[in-house]
Structures are given as structure tokens and as C-alpha cells.
Design goal:
2 copies of one chain form a homodimer. By secondary structure, chain A is α/β, with parallel strands linked by helices. The first copy, chain A, contains 8 helices and 13 strands. Chain A is elongated. The interface between A and B is large, with 75 and 75 residues. Strand 7 of chain A pairs antiparallel with strand 7 of chain B.
């Protein structure tokens, strides 16, 4: 017998931005497992389910709990904010799945902050783009730095995830300095969005020189335009190349 | 008076993957404008609306039609497949909006093929990634080549849009050769997805050496893993770095 487990991207947080596909899978689940903040975002709607969590940094244990519950015969969903396959737990579940041959893992996509944040700012990712996380919890900083340099050299628009945290207050500034050392000029069009899909959402456009000295929190996604990007009527716009 | 126009990402095609937010905005619209293929994907549900289109390559005219209809007092939505801000018409609408000060353009995000395709393959974009289009209709090939090189040098996972068309049958092969010349080894884990969110969806994993000789059509999204990616039980998995 094969136990089906779903890794579900819930989008930015508001129910109106979760797909009907994701919603239906959660509704059919017996058990919903996720980081406590995400379970709270789901709200009252699923209070009739078995809701389980493990503390932050215990992602492996959270995933193993999914397999164990599935083996009890429960229909299990693991929720991730945004898209389950963008800095979410989809890959860890597929890796661990090697040890659970009687379980099958299916990934359900959701809207990730690159896309939901971009929409609030205008259209910053409307040409080739990169997504880079500044978190060095699981990735050596040298690799992050290498990717920032490559993004600048490739003239990509960039969405930056995890630009800051209490222990990494200066990481965004460090990233901006690396980008500027590799050709991104001080007046490059940029923007950031705080609290996407939650209360107190805030979208702001600014230049790279201004971004360099901006303090952001961990609920922020930062956008850096490419060399063709412009701020038009307060919106960050990366052009596709149409002749006007 | 300010006329509101929505640029709506409809996701990959199936209604179950369009957000309730996007659905509600389309339901409240008097006029839905879009490329004919996308209007057809919407199906019968909106047959009571004024549905308008312009031929392919007449994107500027399609956008202008939105502003003209809005000025007639109609509630207008422009639909794009996937996400409106990823190779969609969001940026062109915001650029043209400069000439229509009485109109306000709002972008509604959707699930783009990078995310919906990734979910079908497993988790190929579960670490830093790039999205690159191989279409040189609006972008000089030299710029595409530069971005492919940067993506390889930065060791990004890559989602490739528009990998082929009738006039560009060999573009994917050219792209693969460039990537291989810049360090992507023949056994790099890759994959592709055809017809995401439509009939006859097909997801396949393979190596870079195999991808090089694979013919894909224009309804295909190609995924190239980073140096840490693996094919696990038929799924393309890019690891986040958890210790197992």
C-alpha cells in the first residue's frame, strides 16, 4: 500500500492567494503539519484537523513526522509558506522519502514571494531573473557571494529572500556592496516589500544607493532591477523590450 | 476619476490553479482581454463577458485596448498565462500607463511555469535559481548567452522558458552547449515538463547530455539542476543543504 503525502505551498498567507488545488488537498487531509506560524496563518478553517508542528530548525524532524503519520494511515499535508519548492521543504521530503518506500510525496505549488512581492511593486521580474537567499544557515556565505556576483554580471533582475535577521543585520548591506562592486550603479532601480500577504503590507521603491542604507526585517523581500529597469509612477518596472 | 485595470496571472491553465483573488477580479470585470489561447483556457465560465483579443505580436495594441475600454467606464482585466509579471504584459501595461494618467494598473500574481513545472518534476528550484527565456524576439541573443554563462558560473538551478519554436528549433541545443562549455557536466541532473496545467502534461528527468539531444516544443519548460541536484526515485531534487 502506498501512502500519499502532499507538500503544499500556501502562498503568501491570505486565503485568497492560495490555489483551490492547495485548499482542497488541505481540506481532505487528516493531519496538517507545519511551522507554527504557518499553521496560525491557516486560521480557524482547519481547527478540526490534527495540527502538528516541530520547533524552528527541526525541519528534518517535521518531515519525518509526516512519514510516520502517513504510515498510521492518515492523510497528511505538510504546509510551507509561498511555494513548497522555493526554499521550502519539498526537496528535504523527497530526499528523506528514499527511506520510506511505501510513501509517495507530491508537491503542490503556491505563489512565492518573488511573484507576490513583484506584483505589489509593479513588474520588477518581467525579464530574466534570479532568486537568491542571503541566509547562510544552510549555505556557505562564499556561495551566496558567488551567486550575487554572477547575478550582477548576467544583468539579471534579482529577488532577494531572507535579506536580514537579528544575527545577520548587515547582510543586505554586504550584498548591496558586492553587487555595486560588480557593476550595479548607485541609481539602479530597486524596491522591497514587507509582510506580503499579511497585515501591514508595505511596498517601496528606491535606488540601490538608498537600499544600501536601508534596514529591513526578516519578513522582507528585496528586488533589484536589471540595467533596463525604471521606476515609473512609483512602480518598479523591468521592461521586456517592446518598442513603444 | 481613476479607472482601475487589472493585469491578471491565470496560472498554468487549470481553474484549480488560479487563485481566488484572480478569479474574483475576472468575475467582477466587464471586459476580459487576452491572447486568444488564454481566453479559450478560461472556458465557458466567462462567456457572459466582453472577451477581446488582438493577434500574436500585437501586444502593444492589446494593452492599449485595455486603456481605451477602461476609459469607456468598463471594468477591465488583461489576462496572462502563468504570472502576469514573468514574461507577461505587466511591465508593458505599466510603461504605457504613463500616457493614461486617469488609469491605474494593478498586477495580480499567478503561478508561473517555473513553480508549477518544478512541482511536477519534484523540487528542482529548491535553492537559488534563475529564470531565463531563450526567445530572441525581444532580446538580443548575445544577452541571452551572457545570462546562460552567468547562471552556469553562479551554480544556479535554472528554469528555461521558451526553449524552442518552429523558427528556433536548435536554441535549446545551443543553450546546453553554452552551459556545458561553462562547467555544467554531462551528467548534470535536468528535467522538462510539457503542457503544464493542460491536457497531456508530461514530466521527464534526464541528464544534460541527454537534454542536449532532446527536441522540445514551445509548450515546454526546461529545468537544469545545480551542482548539488540529484535525480531521486525519478524526481529532480535540488537540495537545500540539510544534514541527513
Amino acid at each position: 500500500m502506498c501512502h500519499e503525502i502532499y507538500v503544499v505551498g500556501m502562498g503568501p498567507g491570505e486565503e485568497s492567494m492560495m490555489t483551490p488545488q492547495a485548499m482542497q488537498i488541505l481540506e481532505k487531509s487528516d493531519v496538517i503539519i507545519g511551522y507554527t506560524v504557518y499553521l496560525k496563518l491557516l486560521g480557524e478553517r482547519f481547527s478540526n484537523k490534527e495540527l502538528l508542528s516541530t520547533p524552528m530548525k527541526q525541519e528534518k524532524e517535521r518531515c519525518q513526522l509526516c512519514f510516520e503519520k502517513a504510515r498510521e494511515g492518515k492523510r497528511v499535508s505538510l504546509i510551507c509558506s509561498g511555494d513548497a519548492g522555493v526554499y521550502g521543504l519539498a526537496s528535504l521530503m523527497l530526499e528523506l522519502g528514499k527511506d520510506y518506500e511505501d510513501c509517495n510525496v507530491t508537491v503542490i505549488p503556491g505563489i512565492t514571494a518573488a511573484n507576490s512581492g513583484a506584483a505589489l511593486l509593479g513588474a520588477p521580474l518581467n525579464h530574466d531573473f534570479c532568486v537568491i537567499s542571503l541566509s547562510d544557515l544552510l549555505t556557505p556565505w562564499e556561495r551566496i557571494e558567488k551567486r550575487l556576483i554572477a547575478a550582477a554580471e548576467g544583468d539579471f533582475a534579482i529577488a532577494v529572500y531572507n535579506p536580514s535577521s537579528r544575527k545577520r543585520a548587515d547582510y543586505l548591506e554586504r550584498a548591496c556592496r558586492i553587487l555595486m562592486e560588480h557593476g550595479i550603479e548607485p541609481d539602479r532601480a530597486c524596491g522591497y516589500v514587507e509582510n506580503i500577504g499579511r497585515d501591514h503590507t508595505c511596498a517601496k521603491t528606491l535606488t540601490m544607493a538608498e537600499l544600501l542604507h536601508t534596514e529591513v526585517n526578516m519578513f522582507t523581500t528585496v528586488f533589484i532591477g536589471n540595467s533596463q529597469s525604471e521606476i515609473i509612477d512609483g512602480k518598479l518596472v523591468t521592461k521586456r523590450g517592446y518598442r513603444l
